[in-house]
Amino acid sequence: MRVLLTIFLMTIAMSSNAHFKLAQKEFKKSQKKKSIYIFNELFKSKYYFSALPFAAEHIIESKSISRDFENKLEILLLKTGTNSLAGMKNKDLLKHGSATLHLVYALKMFRLNKFKRAVRVAEKIPLNNKFAPEALYIAGTGRELLNDLARSEDRFNKCIKISGQFKSRANKEKLKRYYSVINESCIMHVARLYYKQKQYKKAIDTYNLIPKTSYRWPYTLIEKAWANYYIEDFNRTLGLVVTYRSPLLQSYFFPEAEVLNALSFYRLCLYDDTLTTIDQYYKVYKSRSTHLKKIIIANKDSHTYFINLAFSSLKDTETINPYIRNLITQIRKKIKFSVDLVSYKKAKNELKHLKQKRKTRFTKFLIRNVEHSIKWRTQHLNHYVKKQFFTFINDIHRFSYEMFNIKLEVMSKKRNLLYRNKELVATRSRGSHENVKRTIYQQFWNFEGSFWADELGDYSYGLKSNCQTVKVSKR
Amino acid sequence: MKLAILFILTFSTMAAEPKVIIEYKKYESFDLGNLEVKGQILAPGDLSVRERDRKVFERPLYERYEFNKESKQDIRNLR
Known about the structure:
The complex is a heterodimer. By secondary structure, chain A is mainly α.
């Protein structure tokens, strides 16, 4: 068996090498249309990153592309990432009517905030194409940002339906997961559409469709908490926000969740609890973020510091700063990071194989291109991680201003009570299950001081609103 | 003749303007206690302020109207 396997692998390697040699032979010639021939040979020998410039050349030079080339382009982009061809001119990306190139164009336009263009081209991708769910997701989001909410909902609903069908047809686990993420993302965006239209109950019901096992689920908690805040179920808001304190969600720290926490206590007129939340924010989070800022500002010009952080072990990152560990965990779970990281590793591996070959004009040309591609990918990944860090620090500062505003408002309320010779009905409201709003599907269990995985996201406080005032002398 | 008319006119003008010396009062005193104002009293005699609640100004606190920023980020984090 082992012998058979060795023979099989050797045959593949020999065949791959043969295709590479054919590409090299063609490279020496100076005839037109050689780029498609070299591309095909490099593609067959699985030198995807080396094949990229020849694919780009063929797209620019030719008037039309074949079905075979389109299929190979699909695979090429999945292996090397959509950004690989994003540098091409817009007219070249559009001229062939290729669904793969349309996706590259739509993503490119979206990044440039040109949503109308992104939507127009994303909607051209046929529904039977493997990129259709992603294209509908882009189109729906584009329309959401353009405030075309009815059409946006339609695109998201199509995305949910089609991604579900693709998922059930997919035979590989990785592909199933990809369609699941698209499906859950589209559900989340439908919930956001309801939220935007102040249909908070509908938004909550839609958020609840996302399973707790989903990668998107931790992000739904804060949005669901806001929806509950606006239907004035502050106890549920507090319960949802407190979920982030569970050990399982330790890495998900959102400064905004702390603000929502303080706001909910404030709306329940529990001013001392509000002030405690604010003080804790300043004492713990603000000081830690100042420390984090010092570390990252010192390395802000480095092209490799942040990518190296992302590659280092969680233990090492925790010793530098607890937020670094949490942020790295969050970043590693992001699809973009995983996809970019995979293509970065593949590019490095390809370079290693190229360097083992005999030095010719052709191999030197390929090495130069792949090295350039790796350099660009390193900087791109490093920038991506760095941006996440700086966004986090900026958020801490932005929300620190909001916290200060709440603190001033609490102080103003307390002063007004004093002027009117009144005080709140109780200095600290006690919790009771009578204050918990429940649907017929929800049951009540006491929180015994430990978080259980199946309970996460279903917590509610039982605090009574303390907003009733009484005359001081009457108490 | 002309000279006679001119002489008469000049003389008559000088005779019409006697020298006036205006003198202002250098000191005057008022007894405010004795002053009386005639009329009807419409307002209450004592000073009063109507009780009302203090105007409470509220700061605009943080609100969340949409998740546009997150939606944009979602697509950027896709690939």
